[in-house]
Amino acid sequence: QSALTQPASVSGSPGQSITISCTATSSDVGSYNLVSWYQQRPGKAPKLIIYEGSKRPSGVSNRFSGSNSGNTASLTISGLQAEDEADYYCCSFGGTKTYVFGTGTKVTVL
Amino acid sequence: QVQLVESGGGLVKPGGSLRLSCAASGFTFSDYYMSWIRQAPGKGLEWVSYISSSGSPIYYADSVKGRFTISRDNAKNSLYLQMNSLTAEDTAVYFCARDEGSSSWYFWGQGTLVTVSS
Which of B102, B110, B113 has the highest number of chain A CBs within 10 A, making it the mutation to test binding with A? Predict the structure, then answer.
């Protein structure tokens, strides 16, 4: 199945903005308008923070935003806060009615 | 409120079988697709399988196809994952999640740990 590649780690200082990329390694990965993003803190279930590329579920901070360009989707966290320290995963269709998650990115707030 | 509670995890020997359950409440279970997603210790998320609201269609990741079977009982508001021919690579926390469409899962269970070891 196809894969979605993310940087292993991204860091930033409080108040800064950071961007996490999610790049498809195969052309059969589905539309990037349908990428979702998840935040996962240690020992917890993932939390949906972006769906359909750029939409935020109710209750999710507007500091989180999603976009896409070509075969790369991106998650931007603005005004970085200590509570944003977590692992982040993108997800999309993997072709043939399957889903594929990205490799995951550890965000560190310096 | 929506609740998903997994059970059935534990220690099993290589080649063995295990059946996971996910009890759903707080929503009309029969209206939603459901998925199993797993996470090996210290590793990333891996989608395992999903099942439509009626029980068909069903899809699996290549890594579990032919060994795992997803099913549901809408009368009991329950989702299941029958896992056979288990290997060490199947060791993971298994989450059930409500499928909102477009690779989106808003509600997740707390997960149940499956350990495959001799």
Answer: B102
